[in-house]
Amino acid sequence: MDRPMRIIGPTAQEIVLGAVLAAGGGLLCAWGVAAWIWDGTLLPGGGVGGGMLAGVTVCAGLGLLMGSAGVRQNAVLLGPAYTLFAVTALAWTVASVVAGEIVALAAGVAMLGLLALVFALRRRALRARFKPLFLSPSAFLTMIQVADTMIDGDGREAVGPITVAKRVDKLLHDVRTPVRREFRVVLLVVEYALPLAVLRPLPFSALGSHLRRRAVERLIGVRRPGILRDIARSLKVLASVGYYGDPAVQKAMGYVPYDDRQRSIGRSQAPLVHPDPFRDPVETLEVTKP
Amino acid sequence: MSRKVDAAVIGSGAAGSVMAYELARRGLKVVVLEAGPREDPTTFEHNELAMFPRVYKQGGLQTTKDHDAILVQGAAVGGSTVINNAIWMRADLDRVLPSWEAAGAPVPRDALEASYAELEYALHVEKVPHDLANPGSDVFLAGCRGAGIPGELLDNNRRECIGCGWCNYGCRYNRKTSMLVTYVPWAEARGTEVLDRCEDVRVVRRDGRATGVTATRAGAKLAYDADRVVVCAGAIGSSAVLLASGIDGGGTVGRNLHCLGGVFVTGETDQLIDGFDGIGLTCVAHAGDDFVIESYFAPPVAFALRLGGWFLSHFNRASRYRSFVDGGVMVGTDPRGGRVSLDRKGRVVIDLKLNETDLDRLRRGLKQLARIYFAGGARRVYPSTFKLMEVTHNDDLSLIDQMIRRPDDLLFGSAHPQGGNVMCEDPSRGVVGPDFQVHGIEGLYVTDTSVWPQNIWANCQATAMAVSHHAATHVAA
Predict the structure, then answer these.
(1) How many CB atoms within 10 Å of residue B405?
(2) Under DSSP, is residue B178 helix (H, G, I), strand (E, B) or coil?
(3) Which residues on neighbouring strands pair with residue B423, listed in sequence order?
(4) How far apart are CA A132 and CA A121, in angstroms?
(5) CB-based contact B310 A150, cutoff 8 Å
(6) Residues B223/B3, Cβ–Cβ less than 8 Å
(7) pLDDT in the model for residue A46
(8) Which of residues 214-233 of A touch B (CB under 8 A)?
(9) Whole-angstrom Cα distance, residue B378 to residue B365?
(10) Chain B residues close to A288, C-beta within 8 Å
């Protein structure tokens, strides 16, 4: 059983990302507070809008700062924090352009730069951690949660969801079929649209296990046939292929490899050669004429 | 620079390999172009995920446009014979040939029977040995007896099989007499050149006559001038080759696609069966003309994929893998609903829908197979459905009618697609004539399952080989 936090230790990229988040979060908090104090100097415009912008900046900074304590464990916090940070950076930039404030514009541009750096680092961190061959890093994260949701063994699972996701990714990398592109779309839909089925505007991979399960149950329960059923079926296919393809799982099911069976004892496994039975002089049947 | 051959054969499966061999046997210089790779059987693994990408078309994920059916075909030198269950089932010619003739496709019975006989001799066809059949076969046969339905072990083309049960992933011991280890090397020994990994295969025509083929292989262009071009890329593949070559037969190419396909049914017993230990597909129940019932068992991934249920219920059921028996109900689908076409990017689009008659036959077949399992001692029966259906007694069989109302309610699949380039004397209704030559294009032939105008209601490989064997006499003439 793989344990997401232990077996695959933090990568260098994750360590750097954590440090950048901590530093960036701290700076954002400080900047937000400073802007609130010196609102006439640092904030683009002022009044209630300016105060809200300062507040949002502090919140985004706090989110990043707290999330930096564990970029894996705090994924649920970091998701909204990234979104809030992106909104903050855009708001600073747009508002400062409208107000013609140079200092605020510089701050907005710096925030956008930091945002780009954070996203690049996050992507690299995910890629370095899982080394996906076909899926994007975020689709891989979704696949982990799909596996965690679909393979419910009540604690008796022989392998964990990361192993399942890795196996699925490898298979999708190896096969040549248009369907694999559709699986990518399925994972995208599941990540961003399926949570709406349980009234949560959050990514699927940020939901708790019960909500994820309930969302998939809603999908399965749809009465009208069509694309929603196809999505549900795809999730079962992906999770089952990844899970039941593992030798440890097969052993747990009771499958016995051929070489370990009673039947194999004393049987030659040497490949046979089949000679052409119609090669002269053993041509025994006449060729049929029309 | 084109090379000159007497015949170019597109595809190396059941039909293509036999065709290549028969032409080479008559002294013709033959080249075979195969889309799949040439695999070394000794490297085949007992590992489903390793083998899906190697020997299955689209890694086993070929589906219809609406994703309601999965169509399983091989993609390697040897075609689907590399991944099939080596079941040898002659078509019921009393039923099939009149239906073909009524569709404008007369095929002489004597010639076909002679072809069957020769192939059976060459491929070591015999009854599946009882001691190599998976243990679930006994439950199935006992169930047939109990339900009053004749059942028996099937014929198969294997020699000195050791019963590993991995036939669907390539036989690494060469005990299955697939084309990869029989007709392909035999044809090569008679001078045939077999080229694997051929992409973008096209038929070249000039003045109403096929003059050769072109393809791309490992990035290089290939061109062969040929007196005859024989398309044997299978149902779906052959239509795709013709359409990509600009041959649509006035709209007939790709039409009338049908299949022998169906649904798996799993029966749970109170004993340890170990169905994985032995040949997977072993028995048939003769339960009427409306459906085909066969017993089967699969390695873990294929088994789990079609096992009913979700979440914990699926997990718990799969963990009782050793206690299951497995089988399937198949029906011949209506040709009128099926079509192969190419989209604007040249990708193959498959339309194949079950109509109400097909569904009704499936429901009746599912009930019959459930009766067989209960008579054999199964406690619970699970048809492969989208929503879990658990039948616990013969009195519950009405559940099947209640829960299976649309094709989408089933997990439907087929390893026996047919049609698409159907034979008909009337060029407005068919692609090839009774001589297997494409209407209006001299020297171009199609001889595989795609020419079958009506379903044969049997596993395809024997008849695919026999029809192609018979067609070789027309092609060589």
Answers:
(1) 11
(2) coil
(3) B432
(4) 16
(5) yes
(6) yes
(7) 64
(8) 216-217, 220, 225-226, 229-230, 232-233
(9) 17
(10) 111, 114-115, 118, 469-470, 473
Helices and strands (DSSP H and E) totals, chain B: 12, 20
B91 backbone φψ class: left, alpha, beta (φ>0; ψ -120 to 50):
beta
- What ipTM was estimated for this complex? 0.94
Asked if the Cβ–Cβ distance from A271 to B189 is below 8 Å, we say: no
Residue located via tokens 């105008």: B453
Q: B414 is written with which tokens? A: 């087929």
Rounded to an integer, what distance in angstroms lies between the CA atom of residue A172 and that of residue A182? 11
The rounded distance, in Å, linking the Cα atoms of A31 and A33 is 5
The whole-angstrom separation of Cα A214 and Cα A194 is: 10
Chain B partners of A233 at a C-beta cutoff of 8 Å? 67, 386, 411
Cβ B173–A269 below 8 Å, yes or no? Answer: yes
Q: Would you call A99 exposed, middle or buried from its count of C-beta atoms within 10 A (0-12, 13-18, 19+)? A: middle
Return the structure tokens found at A91.
């708001």
What torsion do the CA atoms of A73, A74, A78, A80 make, to the nearest 10 degrees?
A: 120
Q: Extract the residue ranges of chain A whose pLDDT is less than 70.
A: 1-8, 40, 45-48, 280-290
C-alpha B329/C-alpha B364 separation (Å) is 9
Three-class SS state of A227: helix
Say which of B278, B315, B347 has its CB closest to residue A152: B315
The pLDDT assigned to A100 comes to 84
> How many residues does this entry show for chain B?
477
Q: What is the pLDDT of residues A174-190, one digit of tens each?
A: 999 989 999 999 999 99
User: What token pair was written down for B31?
Assistant: 């080249």
Q: What is the pLDDT of residues A108-167, one digit of tens each?
A: 999 999 999 999 999 898 888 889 999 999 899 999 999 999 999 999 999 999 999 999
Nearest to A137 by CA among A122, A118, A116: A122
pLDDT tens, residue by residue, B350-364? 999 999 999 999 999
Which carries the bigger pLDDT value, residue B241 or residue B477?
Answer: B241
User: Which of A63-72, B156-165, B196-205 shows the lowest per-residue confidence on average (mean pLDDT)?
Assistant: A63-72
Chain-chain contact of A257 with B46 (C-beta, under 8 angstroms): yes
